[in-house]
Amino acid sequence: MSLARPLTLPRVLQIADALPSAPKVLAELNALLQDPNNGLDEVSGKLRLDSGLTARVLRIANGIVYNQGDPVASLEEALARVGFKEVYRLAGLASVAQLMNFELKFYNSSAARLRENALFVALLMEELAPLAQLDARAAYTAGLLRSIGKIALCATAQRDLRSVRPAALTAETQIRTWETEVFGLTNSAVTEALLRSWRFPFEIYVPIRDHYLVGLAVAPLPAAELLHLAASAAEAHGLGLIGESCYWAKTTPALRAKLGLAEAHFGDISARAFTRFEQMKTALG
Q: In 3-state terms, what secondary structure has residue 109?
């Protein structure tokens, strides 16, 4: 099923640059928040670089998750309402809602499922981060953006491979093998390249690159193993993505043991993340 002319990484990156710019703004916001001297004025100025993102931030801030009074009319009011510590999570939610907003026809997946998987994995990564002494914001971001390579690949294929009818991606398929045969690239490699080009730190893109835990030349970072566990938990909660289950099935118990996570403890953490997910998923639209 290999293609005569597979996609190239430069071409995928070119198409990705035409997608909504929210992830780029999120990268800049992440860097801005590293400096404690920055405040809401600087944050609002950064978010205003993308009018679509600003509109979604306002919509989410006025939604059931964050709205605790009268509707807010300005970005400054919205950020003041949620609080400085919650700004990045709010912007991340808005970024996912903006970027993951079309059907992934090549992947046989809906935009809604991709958004929900991203949110749950991000929330669970945030819960797991302290156990591995990892930065919670970086862990959250890795979970949130781990599948953007699929969006970029699908967007490129819908332009350049319109006549191609690949074998359907199914629950039994190994997604990396399928992607290599159809596109000549894997989603994790594309995500790494995208996040590097958008200047996200390596603590975010390296775990995404390695989180399937196959074909690695070196031992994975703990964050990659946590991301693997978080994606497997998404599958267990009915939020998995087609073609990925084969990567989680055999490795989850061994990884839990390696990280010192008893099954019951991991179950409690996953349940807590799922409760938060249920509260927040309406914000994705």
A: strand
CA distances, 19 to each of 5, 12, 15, 117, 246 (Å): 23, 11, 7, 20, 30
**pTM confidence score:** 0.91
pLDDT in tens, 187-220: 999 999 999 999 999 999 999 999 999 988 888 9
Tokens linked to 122: 């991000």
| CATH superfamily of this structure's domain 9-284 | Hypothetical protein af1432 (1.10.3210.10)
Radius of gyration of the CA atoms of the chain, in A: 18
C-alpha span between 167 and 162 (Å, rounded): 14
3-state secondary structure of 2: coil
- Residue 173 sits at the vertex; the CA angle it makes with 258 and 184, to the nearest 5 degrees, is 95
Q: What is the pLDDT of residues 18-46, one digit of tens each?
A: 888 778 888 888 888 888 788 878 888 88
Going by the DSSP 8-state scheme, the letter that residue 161 receives in this structure is -
Is residue 92 a contact partner of residue 53, using CB atoms and an 8 Å limit? no
Determine the 3-state secondary structure of 28 from DSSP.
helix
Break the chain into its structural domains and give their ranges.
Answer: 9-284
Amino acid (1-letter code) at residue 49 = L
**Which amino acid is located at 73 in the chain?**
A
User: Which residue, 195, 182, 94, is CA-closest to 138?
Assistant: 195
CA–CA separation, 1 vs 16, rounded Å?
25
Chain-centre distance for alpha carbon 201: 15
Q: What confidence tens digit (pLDDT) does each residue in 79-102 have? A: 877 777 788 888 888 888 888 887
Do 199 and 31 meet the contact criterion of CB atoms below 8 Å apart?
yes
Amino acid 200 reads F
